[in-house]
């Protein structure tokens, strides 16, 4: 049984965001969300999760426009990085640069390319790990980055790109009678999803999710962010697909961030993806504690149209 991605993609490393309100965002992620700022460089802030060996899980950049700078995934080796870059080039995927030594924190070796919607994706290996620690009982800060969900106006096309070109496997799909297929959960390892593609009016960030130590820490964290006056969009509840808990908040620049825990692991290659009808209340929230999903909730997750599609970030 192999859970490994056929092209050597191992896991989600970090999500890099450009923001216009840099200092406000830095303070939110450090003081409210519970990440640790491990370095700054001019208008860049690198934020790590205490329980994760990744150098950082969020990078903020002071920008004139809000955008997704990139999503970074790990790769097994220099060989798998080179092979994937060659494969993408041969399939007409636009590379931002050829594989080379990385100039970002932790170094390593990798390359960037545009996915089918114009997002910048980075694939890297041999990045230095950072000193991390076990999160203690009652400590309501993120252990690691869990997954990233992106909006696409053609989610099936985007799903096919990640499946056919990058070797992600489909775990499950959300469906609606009126809207068709609404969200595809994609995996590159045994976590139920490291990436999901949501149906939205434009290319943008839907949400980024952070794994908490357990249910108690997840609830304590949810409460702390609520008490800080941050707008809660939805939750607390527990999804059917992936079986993970959820509470969604809006960060100061309008990106949705999620606390989660207990995301399902898929133990078998013989997994058959399910299609869940979002009209069934049990699909969205098996606990029944969150408000029913509404257009108002959904609208927050549509986010602003991403101004960075098919434009590589400056760093």
TrEMBL record:
Q: Which PROSITE patterns match?
A: VOC (PS51819)
Q: Where is the signal peptide?
A: none
> What CDD domains does the entry give?
BphC5-RrK37_N_like
Q: Which organism is it from?
A: Nocardioides agri
Which PANTHER family does UniProt cross-reference here? GLYOXALASE FAMILY PROTEIN, METALLOTHIOL TRANSFERASE FOSB
Q: Where is the VOC domain?
A: 11-126, 144-262
Question: InterPro entries per the record?
Answer: Glyas_Bleomycin-R_OHBP_Dase, Glyas_Fos-R_dOase_dom, GlyoxalaseI/FosfomycinResist, VOC_core
Official protein name in the record = Oxidoreductase
Q: Which domain of life is it from?
A: Bacteria
